[in-house]
Amino acid sequence: MRYAAITGCGMAVPDRVLTNAELEKMVDTNDEWIVSRTGIRERRVAGPADSTTSLSVKAARAALAHAGLTPDDIQLIVVATCTPDQFIVSEACLVQAELGGSAAAFDVGAACSGFVYALTVGSMFVQQGLYDRVLVIGADTLTRFIDYTDRSTCILFGDGAGAMVIEASDQPRGLLSTVMGADGGGNKHLYAPGWGAIVPESAELFPEIRPYMQMNGQEVFRFAVRVMGDAAAEAVQKAGLSFDDIDMLIPHQANSRIIDAAARRLALPREKVLVNLDRYGNTSAASVPIALAEASGQGKLNEGDNLVLVAFGAGLAWAAGVVRWGVAGVPRPELAARRGAGVLAAISDGD
Ligand code: UT7
């Protein structure tokens, strides 16, 4: 059997911090409401020098350094994003141009669920034997598409990128199971209109179609609570594990109440649930890999740990997977030695 171990991870967020206190001056909201309804205290917002590409490249370099590899070692780059810097060409090609190397490169579009979709795609290439080393990135700069006069959305989102290097292993490491789904009919509950190739019905109408995120928060909330718990539970079962075998839940960081509901469904205590949305808000496709990279950097993940990744978002789409952490079975003895010596336990690139 060939598996696809995660051998390196990294993250990057913009320097600019946007606090709840600042939002209080922009819209009719307050810190108490935001914290009690979402758990978010601050988020990072891309500045003029930041882009989906620049954040992706920083995260990718950190992941490669963690794995002890260079861009030339990578054979495929998959980027999950719904905010590419350009529509033509792919974000993955823009990242490859900055990183160097000659890896195949393409994007996966599944909004906030995108990283788990992309990890599934990248892992399949490794498991099937087409490639040995793949770079998977989740990156978004959604704040470029946020209306900062709309209090129902502007409090939620932040920007960032997270990256993982996956490599062939002969031991059960990396993604052990995946559950993916979509309810396209629910697209109207979370979307950005006027931002694509469709021709508007009337040219006069076009200026009124704002490219800002539109969201029916309550509908998305109900959907999220249902699919996060169900998908995570199904992924655990598909991996042949029980809830007791799970060492950590790494959920999409959208709302602490949604995360709590998913944790309850898996009967996991609070200390086994990774939450960092208080500092980053909802970073869309970047949220799961940022959380994973932080957990690794904080020494919270051990060889052989079983992790549940689960995400939901625009589509409406969702995805969950069980990942077994560690580098056992990767034919690079120096990798285990680096980990053993505590070298680069992980890198969190906040520059
Ligand atoms: O990656 C996926 C991205 N999307 C999501 O994850 C969204 C999921 N949904 C949610 O997280 C929640 O629905 C929200 C946080 C967006 C909203 O929380 P809620 O508990 O569902 O609030 P609500 O929409 O039911 O609004 C309750 C009240 C309303 O006032 P009235 O009608 O009761 O007077 C809103 O107008 O809260 C008001 N409100 C606010 N008040 C202060 C809405 N936004 C704000 C705000 N500050 N920022």
Q: If you had to describe this structure to a student in words, what would you say it looks like?
A:
- The protein has 351 residues and is α/β, with parallel strands linked by helices.
- It has one domain (1-345): Peroxisomal Thiolase, Chain A, domain 1 (3-Layer(aba) Sandwich).
- 32% of the residues lie in helices and 23% in strands.
- The chain contains eleven helices and 14 strands.
- The chain has helices at residues 20-26, 31-38, 52-67, 91-99, 114-127, 151-154, 217-238, 256-265, 277-280, 287-297, 333-340, and strands at 3-12, 17-19, 42-44, 76-80, 104-108, 133-140, 160-169, 174-182, 190-191, 214-215, 248-251, 306-313, 317-324, 347-349.
- The chain has a six-stranded mixed β-sheet with strand order 5-4-6-7-1-14, sandwiched between helices. Strands 8-13-12-11 form a four-stranded mixed β-sheet, with helices on both faces. A two-stranded antiparallel ribbon has the order 2-3.
- α7 runs parallel beside α8.
- The longest helix has 22 residues, at 217-238.
- It starts with a strand and ends with a strand.
- The structure holds oxa(dethia)-CoA (UT7).
- Oxa(dethia)-CoA (UT7) binds at residues 29, 33, 37-38, 112, 151-152, 155, 190, 215, 217-218, 220-221, 224, 254-255, 282, 313.
Write the layout of secondary structure elements.
Elements: E1 3-12, E2 17-19, H1 20-26, H2 31-38, E3 42-44, H3 52-67, E4 76-80, H4 91-99, E5 104-108, H5 114-127, E6 133-140, H6 151-154, E7 160-169, E8 174-182, E9 190-191, E10 214-215, H7 217-238, E11 248-251, H8 256-265, H9 277-280, H10 287-297, E12 306-313, E13 317-324, H11 333-340, E14 347-349
Parallel strand pairs: 1-14, 4-5, 4-6, 11-12
Antiparallel strand pairs: 1-7, 2-3, 6-7, 8-13, 9-10, 12-13
Bound molecules: oxa(dethia)-CoA (UT7).
